[in-house]
Amino acid sequence: MLPVCGGGIRREKMAPPGKQHASGACVIPGGFTVLSLKFRSSSSAQHQLCVKEHRVRAEKNSNRPLDRTLFVLNIPPYCSESVVKGMFSQFGPVQSVELSEKPGPKEAENTLSQYFKTAGRQCFKVGYIVFKEASSIAAAKSHPLNSPLLVSNSKKPVRVGLQKWIHEYTQSIVKQDALQEAVDEFMNQYDKTKEEEVERLQKEAEQQQEDEEGWVKVTKGGKGTKARPHSEVANQKTLQKEDKKKRRKELVNFYTWQRRDTQREHIAQLRKKFEEDKQRIALLRAQRKFRPY
Amino acid sequence: MKRKHLTSTEDLENEVDIPNAAQSEDDVESSMEASKKDNVVRPLKLSKGDLYKAPTVEELNQLKEAENLFHCSLLKMQMEELLKEVALSERRKKLLDSFVEEINDLLQSVPETPVVELTDVSWLEDSAIDVPFTMVPEVNGKFHMEPPASVDLIGSYPLGTCIKPRVTVDLAVTIPPNVLHPMDGINQRYPRKRALYLAGLAQHLASSPEVGPLHFSCLHGNRLRPVLLVTPSGKDSSVTLRIHAIPPPDFLKPSRFHPQKNNIRTDWFTGISSEQERTEPSTPHYNSTVLGDHLPRPHLQFLTAHSDQCPAFRDAVALLKVWLRQRELDQGTGCFGGFLAAMLMAYLLSTHKVGKTMNAYQLLRNALHFLASTDLTKSGITLAKNPDSKAPSLPEFHSAFQVVFVDPSGHLNMCADMTACTYKQIQYEASQSLQFWDDPTLDSFQALLMTPKPMIRTYDNVYQLSDMVKLQASCKKLSLLGSLMDHSGNYVLAVLPFILSLLQRGLGQRIRLLVHSLPKDPEWSVYSEPPKHKDQPPLSFGMLLNPEQCFSVLERGPPADSPEAAEFRQLWGSLSELRRFQDGAITEAVLWPGSSTCEKRKILLKIITHLLELHADIPNSSVLFVGGRVHEVIKLRKEIKSTGEEESLKVVQSFDDLSRKLWQLEGLPLSITSVQGAHPALRYTQVFPPEPAKLESSFFKKEKTLNALLPQDWKACPHYITPVKVICHMEGSGKWPNERLAIRHIKAAFHLRLGELLKQQHDYTCQATPAHLDVWKDGLLFRIQVAYHREPQVLREKVTPEGLLIVRDNPEAQALEVETQHKPFLTSTLHGLQQQHPCFGAVCRLAKRWLGAQLFMGEIGEDAVDLLVAFLFLQPAPFTPPSSLQVGLLRFLHLLSSFDWRINPLVVNLNGKLTASDCTEIKNHFIASRESLPVMFIATPNDHKASIWTKTGPSVPVLQRMVTVAAESLHVLEAQFAQPSQNHDIRVVFRPPLEAYDVLIHLKTKQVPLAAQAVDPSPITFPRGISKGEGGSLGGAFPVMDFDPVKLYLSELRDAFGDLALFFYDPFGGKVIAVLWKPKAFEQQPFKTSLMNGRKVEVVNEVATTAPNVEAIVEDFRIMGEGLVENVEPRTEKWVV
Questions:
Q1: How far apart are CA B325 and CA B450, in angstroms?
Q2: ipTM, 2 decimals?
Q3: Using one digit for the tens of pLDDT, what is the confidence trace for B777-829?
Q4: List of chain B residues whose C-beta atoms are within 8 Å of the C-beta of residue A6
Q5: What is the domain class of B992-1136 according to CATH?
Q6: Which candidate, B751, B728, B739, places its Cα nearest to that of B791?
Q7: Residues 102 to 131 of A: which have CB under 8 A from any B CB?
Q8: A292–B82 C-beta distance less than 8 A
Q9: Residue B798 forms beta bridges with which residues?
Q10: Were B897 and a residue from B211, B213, B380, B967 both cysteine, which residue would form a disulfide, CB within 3.0 to 4.6 Å?
Q11: Domain B458-518+531-553+592-626 maps to which CATH number in 1.10.3430, 3.30.70, 3.40.50, 1.20.1630?
């Protein structure tokens, strides 16, 4: 399957799949420029990265300035943020690189220590590359398809396979005292916020009290903060209780018609079961399930 | 990428197309819709009018009957459907009738032949038909052909109890009185004339164009009663006409065939005329053979009379015949055939044990109840109302036969050929069936009538006696001349009762039931000689083991000075020796060698070969243990004689010790409330249980600051150390925070603290991580995870902006619950199951080994497999819980290949906690929400609705493939087991077919740490840093644990390419990863930013589409597995890029 362009004319192998600019860059409908990527210079096959300037209507994230951010698709799993940074610095100095599984706003930064961070999936990713200068974007977008980016070179080899796993294993061994420190730090922080919370509540409670002159400050919380939060479960329980109360008051099997109804119901139940069984049998018969051998 | 359409891949492709299964479901539904008028299928809706209209009396009765007589109306309908399936169609009946008519006409025109000597068969020479009888020794007499005196239909067809398949119609041809002589009963003269007469009939029929190929057979394997099998010429050969030759009524006096009389003279039989007078031995079997030929017509009259009285008689007999057939009891020598079934039903009717108005269901139940409760080997029954004075009495019958059921004439024992063992088998089956019937949680219809019970899948151990000719020697050794005469030279039948009683005595309490295969009726062409006795198929002995005692190494006999001691010594011969026991007694005893479970499994074989050699001169080599080599695939190493039971026990003991030490730890801020194992090794179901490892520290790189050993990339991957998961619950307390992150940190603090204390108080090497604490103890690695019982709840809680506390289920909480609550519970429950059934663990391991070897272990969880096997033990109906590996494996494969997951939930009733109403509730819920539930639905007492163990897999195509492969493996195994003499390789079913896969990634054996576990391990082994003897001291350093490059590689591959391909691998030492492209992912898709991973762009007419970049992906397989991957083999013959 050779990539075919525009008028459907077949080109040579490794020919760009889109419109070719004078510089050799390949742009496809949708505004993406296709770049190629090789693991090392001796690799035979290439991945295709699609790049485009980052453009969303309302970018709230100040880390992704619209004019200097390049949006990259299909970054292979063995490219870490530093590798991507290295690859793209040929277009100009890179300020930061951010990789994520799906395009979209960045998840909230968490400040957890390294031990408590959850490891991400090692899949293909999208990247947001922030250059220091806006001109780098254009440089990247006009990069020709036939000169592939290299992931690993002799100067900066990228660890893959066995070497990577051994490295990761070494990294995964936890220094006991460092872990203890991290835990202690977090718990101190946590206790502090808890204390602050308690203090705040106390303060609010105090505000509810009459002051010397007998005034009470009315706050947004209505009749003061509740001791425990509303919960869905509690709500349901009350509803059930009321239901039960209602039912207890009803009389069953009292009037003749009620008893007649119960009998009728019994027969109807039998009938229903009979019909259900018949249906089940029909299903089995359709599958020839009654052949004993 | 396009697939080339090769026939070999097509079936797999179909399987991968997921909608396939759904489609067949649609088919069913549409056919159902067609069958129902109101076009509603599920859930059932009856209109109000229909449901509440006034019931008619008839309908009320019907509903009441269904409610009272059957568990539910379902069973009644099921039985009706079954009867419809086995009944003969009108078309077939017509065909049969016309064929019988034709044959009848042909038979009437048999030409007469001149009178010749009995030994002279020259009159048959023209047609080359051979006499269906071995004519030695010779006997005098005259014979000639004449047209039959009469031709009558007898047996099941005129009675109306004939059922499919193998429809046979019995035709009795009466030999004219002129051919016979009143003294013909003696010395086999009558049976020979009978055989000659049949040969004469065959000669006549063979010339007719309406008749297809002719065969001889013999009735219930009795060589004295040959029958002629006639099939119509042409394609419809599903009907067989069986022609019996019978003497004219009242030709021979029944009293001459009293079981204590002799009708075969020793002088004639042996050919040696002895001078002295001797008492001739009685010939009860020969007598009943001759007598039996006189009676088919009176028997038919008798049965017809009864069946006319009772409307459900025919159906009941048909059901009983199905029941017998499923248990392989209806054919062969000494069988309980359809005739006996009808006679039994008649007996029940005539003794008023059943009423005439009962329905077929009740009759069947009563018949089974009668069989279960009556021992015909001790107290025989008779149908004779007023026997004449010359008829033998019941005690006389009992002294001559093992099982007694006397016919209406009072002279014939209809169970003459049956061995006591066979009757015990029937009794056992009947009582089992009644139990299943009464169990409301069971589908008794399936268990009783629908599941076949072939011997190798039913009995725990099956031993085969090949070389039937060796039994001739046993006859001599046991001096059974009288019996041999009685069975007219059939030494197998003569010696069988003696072998059975010998085995029964020798095996005693070790077995619960001993059965033997019924020698099959031979069938041979009319143009060839009758088969010899030595050509009979081998005899199989099946036994149900008594799990507590079957493998005991000691056979303790009576005290040395007691009179029974001599008997004991006689039985065991030289193996019996005097032994003194701890209680001071000195007794005779036999001690069998066996230190491990693996060796003990062979004790039964040793006993059997020893006894048969000692008493019956049968050499060792003729006794074969069927499927006795299955254990080889779960042997830890070739050189050791253990299949892992002992190693599992060691792990459990070490865990118990650790658990005790954890409980006793001092200085924890909160106390421990439970320590539970959550790993297969702690319930004896780990395929290869971890063995204590002694490490050579010189093999590893040592990291000083972390004090841990590290693997090195230029050496072989170190020995894999399995972490054994332990869940440690801490007490609930107000001190636990109410926030998820804080709980995680507190748990980490606990891990650290536990590690410190274990180091201080017991000097274990420990290493804490936020998720768990690793403890290195006795060469094993325990991974302790602290759990807080409220954590899943905390994970589910959320506060809405309005301040309302809501509870929402999420996968994170579910996963935690599975890890900390369900898994430990399952582990302890299954551990309990292992205590009840000692071979549970081994069967689980075998099952997982098979699934692993067939590359399915990545798709189905270990816990789910353990539950499947547990099901075999908890609901074995119609079998008994397996007590041996081979039967366990066969039943597992059968379950996998035959269970219909689409319409049935698999209910594993652990600890018997589910009641009948629970089961119904589970079923109803399952039916109501089938579409949203996992394909493989397993319910347990703790999990009625979600099937937590199979949520993630297997998927529909994988399950389908699993079913196909299981069926094929079962087929191969059963074929192997049927011929144990061929010395087959059991590993055949443990080698996966690799043709179906698209890419094969071959791995370097050097870097596969578990390579030694492979089904076919490579001869080259690599040093992996463990030493056999004492390992060097690690100096408190932590070993390399849970480091398996293949596992890491697989998880990376699945992460990166999981949506494009499926990856299959055998976790037990596999050397190849098989990749299967998902066809759906390979379709051209329009360019989308969310769908670009691993794909390349193509622009046609200004529209960009994408397709997977296969070349780059295959290259990535190589890059990502650098150091581990030997080579990547794209099987491009199946697809093109």
A1: 10
A2: 0.82
A3: 888 899 999 999 999 999 988 887 777 788 888 888 999 999 999 999 999 99
A4: 1099, 1101-1102
A5: alpha beta
A6: B739
A7: 102-103, 112, 115-116, 121-124, 126
A8: yes
A9: B806
A10: B967
A11: 3.30.70
